[in-house]
Design brief:
Elements: E1 7-22, E2 25-38, E3 41-56, E4 59-69
Antiparallel strand pairs: 1-2, 2-3, 3-4
Length: about 70
């Protein structure tokens, strides 16, 4: 959808982020605020997210990701 221009992001902001490193693993949590336009309709998202990273072959890679609606 992004490549076809059927979706456009007017806002994409990450806030309230925390990072914890455990040797060759790391966890980040935060909040994602975004506004996207899909088929001419504006949609606001407010998500909480968690990402798990592993350091291997000289770089950090995401091995798990979860996002869900933030509580009001």
């Amino acid at each position: 959808m992004f490549a076809s221009n059927r979706i456009k992001f007017n806002r994409y902001e990450t806030i309230e982020t925390t990072f914890r490193v455990f040797g060759t693993s790391a966890i980040t949590t935060g909040r994602l605020l975004r506004t996207r336009v899909v088929a001419g309709v504006s949609v606001d998202d407010d998500w909480r997210f968690t990402k798990v990273y592993v350091y291997r072959a000289g770089r950090w890679s995401v091995v798990s990701f979860h996002a869900s609606n933030a509580a009001p």
